Amino acid sequence: MTTAARALSTGLPAPVAASGSPGLRPAELLHRLRGRTGPGIAVSGGADSGADGSPITHVERVPAREGRRAPWPGWVPAPLREALAARGIDAPWEHQATAAERAHGGSHVVLATGTASGKSLAYQLPALSALLADPRATVLYLSPTKALAADQLRAITRLGLDGVRPATLDGDTPREEREWIRQHSRFVLTNPDMLHHSLLPGHARWGVFLRRLRYVVIDECHTYRGVFGSHVAHVLRRLRRAATRYGSRPTFVLASATSGDPADTASRLTGLPVTAVTEDASPRGAVTFALWEPPLLAPEPGPGPVRPRSAPDDATAGGPDTIATEATTSSADSEIVAVDLPPVRRSALRETADLLTEAVAAGTRTLAFVRSRRGAEVVASMARRALDEAVPGLGARVAAYRGGYLREDRRAIERALLTGELLALASTNALELGVDLVGLDAVLICGYPGTRASLWQQAGRAGRSGGEALAVLVARDDPLDTYLVHHPEALFGRPVEATVLDPTNPYVLGPQLCSAASEAPLTADDLELFGGPPAREAVAALTDAGALRHRPSGWYWTHRGRPEVDLRGTGGAPVSVVESATGRLLGTVDPGSAHLQLHTGAVYLHQGVSYLVDQLDLEDAVALVHAAEPDFSTHARDVTNLSVAEVRAYVDAGPVGLFLGEVDVTSQVVSYQRRRLRTGEVIDTRPLDLPERELRTVAVWFTISPQALAAAGVAAADVPGALHAAEHAAIGLLPLMATCDRWDIGGLSTANHADTEAPTVFVYDGHPGGAGFAERAYATAAAWLRATRAAIASCACENGCPSCVQSPKCGNGNSPLAKGAAVAVLEAVLDALPN
Ligand SMILES: [Zn+2]
Ligand SMILES: [Zn+2]
Asked: What is the pLDDT of residues 536-578, one digit of tens each?
């Protein structure tokens, strides 16, 4: 019997059709969910243990908080106050008033408080007051997503203020409309991409707008991290330079999710001194937060938990010079692959789908966050099927939601959730950002989202109306997730991570200086603005290379066209997925993951419907697909090579060496396996003809001499498996040290690498030029490798499992792996390394 059928047979309240369904209280829902898999434990404060077979390893109660109001600042004009009062806002919360007051006084300020704490009002107050007080003033608002800008536009339009004429400017805005916006709008809502591609290159046409610019609002500024964040930092410096040129010095107001040291991050992002307001004075309902570890499956008969594989391209595995590699793609489908790895635990996807099913059956409005697009669609489709089996038609109240959907699809889904037509969504983090969904009772988080900041952001989606809410983190079969559900102290009561960005990355700085020079010649003063010494160095190199020319008045861009700069580091235009028969555009996929997800013959899921890819046309960035229900899944194979270009730093520790440096990585998707859906059995392996992709990036690596390995008791035949296993676990644990996730990082291990001439494990940034992760790993190597060793040694499995040394993105089918020998290798490395 399915979960829903079982639940319904025990007498559930009938699902409610209209909006405002109260659902179950969190404690009741948690009790019901817990009862699903074993004997229930009474929910009490503090920690539960999972020792009695309950999947719940910990319950944390986050208490409710009273709100604190502040009076309206005296400078807020009456029409604005009245418009806000008409929308039900009688007075600002303290944090809103404090931030607004500072911005009004001309200080750059960042407001870093929780989800639903009303950050918008903090910038609306000074910005709209300025527009009402001065009929010529202008405001520029930047958001990371179109959906969020559209949401803000609605909010400002609803206020009905005279003469503000707010408008969104994005890639979809028609040319005639852009003209109107430029001439008439005084509140332009756009994104860093538009600023970079359109507004700044055309600054002369925007001169009047820039001259009158009073405020720049940067919403959800914590999303500008890594390489993208470093690019945006320079786009903002270019904006400041353009504003200065036309005679304005706008005040920057930033809004951020809770993050470590927001003032420092905001200052690095804007290049300006920014102060932070972090004390949240908005009321909050209590949240019950449960950590959930899916149960172990009964062991399969046969030799150990690792099912032998017989794919032809595994034939070379295990030889003395085996090179094992990991694919890096930012949106790869960990969960899907995990479903097909030899099952040790119930997959987090299935577990989440069951919990979602249960919640919907109980009439609870629930949002499930799933990390990959495909994962979100699988969860939605599994829940729909289970609900339909129980009550035909009930499945229609669950939908999938993700960033790649077309605008109309997204709007329809948001509306349906608002009206109560939909009870639940399975979503990627497209919904993590401020899109306004109200009245959710529960949030399920399928897999640790990578940072504590994201975790709280997602959990904060529940209980917007101030009522009690439930959040459940479902652990994936992954070393970090396993570590966290058993170490709740690493999640609760600890500050969230700082956002990492590095504007001095030469792969960012160089192209950005070219962009700036193409907008207006760079002067010596400008180079201070763009970072001082690193900028001077980069300009000298660009001048030598002929990209810039030095004249007495500055450095000039020498080419006709504009420099090509890829802000988001996705490597070009997204690939469109088109249904062959109808020509219908189903969605888009990042070019970086198109090779893996949309290769010819791949199974592609959209809104729970599966399609087969007929053809991937890389030149036109189109994948042609047709609807099909194959009884197999597809798994792309990736071959990677790595060579060392330059060593930046190293530690010589006798038989062990630790290095940081630049490497060249080439990878190619060469084949794919088709596996039976039910059993995971390999049907066949088919070759693919896709081009290589190249990456110059930063890596951390360690070497250990064969003698030291022998002394540590690692047999020669086990060396490749030991290094490979250590590499997998080390990648899995790195997010403990740096604000990355394992999909940002690649790895390669080999019993003998041509450049190091020794057994070596490489771990590299998956972004051109690096994003700071490898540096962080090098700086914290001893702590990082100690946690890695602990994670492997404490895993209860016999021969390695996804919770310790297996990787969902292994380009070698998780072979060879030697769990015990990996512990010995790490032991030997840690013994040699200075602390
Ligand atoms: Zn294990
Ligand atoms: Zn691997």
From this structure: 999 999 999 999 999 999 999 998 888 888 787 655 667 889 9
pLDDT at 362: 87
Q: Token digits for 155?
A: 């909010």
Distance (angstroms) between ligand 1 centre and the Cα of 34 equals 24
> How far, in Å, is the centroid of ligand 2 from the Cα of 111?
42
| Six token digits for residue 478 | 């992954």
Q: 489 burial class (0-12, 13-18, 19+ CB within 10 angstroms)? A: exposed
**Cα distance between the two ends of the chain:** 55
In whole angstroms, give the CA distance from residue 72 to residue 122. Answer: 11
Q: Determine the distance separating the centroid of ligand 1 and the alpha carbon of 819, expressed in angstroms.
A: 8
CA of 477 to the centre of ligand 1 (A): 9
- Pull the structure tokens for residue 258: 């809770």
Give the residue carrying structure tokens 């908080």: 65
Q: Which two tokens stand for residue 559?
A: 């080419």
Cα 606 to Cα 249, 329, 378, 389, 535, distances in angstroms: 47, 19, 9, 21, 45
Q: Taking the alpha carbons of 415, 416, 420, 422 in that order, is the dihedral positive or negative?
A: negative
| Distance (Å, whole) CA 723 – CA 792 | 13
Of 68-77, 226-235, 514-523, 570-579, the one with minimum mean pLDDT is 570-579
**Distance between Cα 344 and ligand 1 center (Å):** 9
Residue 498 to residue 452: CA distance in whole angstroms: 10
Q: Under a CB-based contact definition with an 8 Å cutoff, are residues 765 and 744 in contact?
A: yes
- Ramachandran region of residue 472, left (φ > 0), alpha (ψ -120 to 50) or beta? beta
**Ligand located closest to 728 CA:** 2
**In contact, 651 and 785? CB cutoff 8 Å:** no
- State the CB neighbour count (10 A cutoff) for residue 421: 16
Cα gap 308→318, rounded to integer Å? 13
CA of 448 to the centre of ligand 1 (A): 18
pLDDT of residue 449: 81
Relative to the alpha carbon of 725, which ligand is closest? 2
> How large is the average pLDDT for residues 40-63?
60
652 CA from centroid of ligand 2 (Å): 27
**Helix, coil or strand: residue 186:** coil
Residue 326 Cα to ligand 2 midpoint, Å, equals: 5
Rounded to the nearest 10 degrees, what angle do helices 348-361 and 26-35 cross at? 130
Residues lying with their CB under 5 A of ligand 1, a single-atom ion: 795, 797, 801, 803-804
Query: What are the φ/ψ torsions at residue 241 (nearest 5 degrees)?
Result: -65, -45
Q: What's the 727 CA to ligand 1 centre distance in angstroms?
A: 14
Q: Give the residue among 229, 228, 237 at the shortest CA–CA distance from 270.
A: 237
CB 602 within 8 A of CB 611: no
Which position has the higher pLDDT, 327 or 631?
Answer: 631
Indicate which ligand has the atom closest to the C-alpha of 800: 1
The CB density around residue 715, as the number of other CB atoms within 10 Å, is: 12
pTM value is: 0.68
63: buried, middle or exposed (CB in 10 Å: 19+, 13-18, 0-12)?
A: exposed
Residues 6+ apart with CB under 8 A from 577: 585, 586, 587, 588, 589, 598, 604, 606, 611, 622, 623, 625
pLDDT at 46 over 80: no
Q: Could you tell me the distance, in angstroms and rounded to a whole number, from the CA of residue 802 to the centre of ligand 1?
A: 6
C-alpha to C-alpha distance for 523 and 504, rounded to whole angstroms: 18
Ligand closest to the CA atom of residue 822: 1
| Total Cβ atoms within 10 A of residue 67 | 14
620 by Cβ neighbours in 10 Å (0-12 / 13-18 / 19+) ranks as exposed
C-alpha 667 – ligand 2 centre gap (Å): 14
**763 alpha carbon – ligand 1 mean position (Å):** 21
* DSSP state, residue 257: -
